[in-house]
Structure formats: C-alpha cells, structure tokens
Amino acid sequence: MFHPKLFENRNVVVTGAGRGIGLEVTRQFLDCGAKVLAHIGRESERSLPDFLLTAEADRRAFLVAADFSKGEGTQAFANKVLSTFDRIDVLVNNAGTMVGRFPADQLTDEQYDAVVQLNQTSVVELTRALIPALRAAQAAAIVNTVSISALTGGSPGSAIYSASKAFVATYSKALARELAPSGVRVNCVSPGTIETDFHQRYSSPEKLEATRKSIPLQRLGTAEDCAPAYLFLSAPSLSGYVTGQVLEINGGQLIC
Ligand SMILES: NC(=O)c1ccc[n+]([C@@H]2O[C@H](COP(=O)([O-])OP(=O)(O)OC[C@H]3O[C@@H](n4cnc5c(N)ncnc54)[C@H](OP(=O)(O)O)[C@@H]3O)[C@@H](O)[C@H]2O)c1
C-alpha cells in the first residue's frame, strides 16, 4: 500500500506486536523496509506468523517479550531496545488492554493499579527511557494507541481503562510541544471498535452486533483499517507537519 522503501534504514519499535493491531502495524512497517523491534507480548513462547519469523531470521525483526504490568518489566524491555538500536526513528506505544470490567463501586486497589500501570504508567516509563535515542534520529515520531473511549468514557466497567487512554492522549499533546524542538513528533491513533482478541474477551457478541448497527459505516473495524494511520503518522514525508494530534479510526462511530 505504502512505498516499499518508505521506512528503509529506519529503526521502529512496536509494543503489543504479537497479535491484533500491533501485529498488523509491524507487518506493514516490515513491508515498507523498516527494521522493527517487535514486543511480542508477555510470553516469549508463543506462536507467531511466518512473516515475523522470516523477518527475524533475516535480522529485519527483533522479537522481545516483556510484561509491562511491573516497572521492572518495562525497564528491562527498554534496555533490550537500547542494546539493539542506538537511534530510534519510530516508537509505537500500543500494548494495552482493559484487564477486566470492574464496576466502579467494586474496584479494588490492585485492579486499579493493574489497569493504570499497563495502559498509562508503562507508556510514560518506556517513552522516558527512549527519548534520548529518539532525539538521536533525524526526524523521529512517537505514535501512541489510545481509544475512542478516551472521548466517550467507554462502556460500564471500563472507567479506569478509558481514563488511562485519555491520560495518554493528553500526555502525548504535552510531549508534542516539549519534543518539537528536537524534531520529534508525537501523535495518537484512536481505534473505535476493532475486531481483535480484545473484544473477544471483554464484549459479548450481542454487544458487538448492537455496536456494529450504530456505526455509520455499518461494520466493525479491523487491524488492517488501523495500521495505515500509524505508518502515515510515522513518516516525515507524509505527516512532517502533523504533531500533537489524535487520529480517530472508527467508521464514524464518533463524529464531533
Ligand atoms: N480492539 C479495540 O477495539 C480497541 C479499541 C480501542 C483501543 N484499543 C487499544 O489498541 C491496543 C491494541 O489492542 P488490540 O485490540 O490489538 O488487542 P490485543 O489483540 O488484545 O493485543 C494487546 C497487546 O497488548 C499486550 N499486552 C497486554 N497486557 C500486557 C502486559 N501486561 N504487558 C505487556 N504487554 C501486554 C498483549 O500481549 P499478550 O499477547 O501477552 O496479552 C498484546 O500484544 C491496546 O492499547 C488497546 O487498548 C483497542
């Protein structure tokens, strides 16, 4: 879809790349000539598609597992990134999940901490650790995955998750101003309802069908619908004058 050399000689880091949106983003970066350090999720022993294993054998992909539910896991991942790449052209902070649906009056401290640590704190920790390597690149970009729920508040039981995504959206806007003098752009992709394992876990088929009917384009989204937005926001030749923005990918589910 994009030019096969769009990201030639570019070092790209994608978190949450073992499945879903992050996996498709990784596939498309590899198709455009990037070297990708792909965070494949929590487990190192997981089945991965052939394209990723082939790219690993060719040393175009570097596969790293890490659990971001603890600060040590995020720091260990950052150390692996920095021992692989001395400069980073693109950082995609995409790992995240709802963790569970927690009614506001029953939410425990542990559940609150788990949702915030993964979706919010780990983004800050990883970004902080990688900023020097991003500054070392010519025209680097950070793209953070947020969510339609950052604007709508989401559905019952997702209050802390939705608020964490709103935190990341606002953090990204602040960071865009702060890093602009270093030539680093910061933007977000905000998916609507995307058919990945995410909704298999947290939404019933009935809920998904009701959502589908309410979407102006009359279908749920796919990872393939989302991935081009990450590449667009990462490429200085396509979006060099775009920073501090949130790109909504939702079939018109939210128009405002
Ligand atoms: N699907 C949607 O409708 C939707 C809508 C809005 C926003 N989003 C956001 O889009 C991003 C990608 O979601 P997806 O739909 O592609 O979901 P997914 O298929 O469930 O993928 C989530 C990714 O995050 C990783 N992850 C989860 N918990 C982790 C932890 N404790 N430490 C490290 N990695 C962890 C997963 O690794 P494991 O394989 O180890 O679990 C996986 O790679 C997430 O940030 C999500 O919040 C999704």
From TrEMBL:
Protein keywords: Oxidoreductase
Residue ranges of domain Ketoreductase in the record: 10-192
PROSITE patterns the UniProt entry points to: ADH_SHORT
SUPFAM superfamilies: NAD(P)-binding Rossmann-fold domains
GO MF term (any one): oxidoreductase activity
CDD domains: SDR_c
InterPro entries reported in the protein's UniProt record: KR_dom, NAD(P)-bd_dom_sf, Sc_DH/Rdtase_CS, SDR_fam
Superkingdom per UniProt: Bacteria
Record carries keyword Oxidoreductase: yes
Xref: Gene3D superfamilies: NAD(P)-binding Rossmann-like Domain
Pfam assignment, any one: adh_short_C2
Family from the record: Belongs to the short-chain dehydrogenases/reductases (SDR) family.
Protein name: SDR family oxidoreductase
Organism of this sequence: Rhizobium grahamii
Species classification: Bacteria, Pseudomonadati, Pseudomonadota, Alphaproteobacteria, Hyphomicrobiales
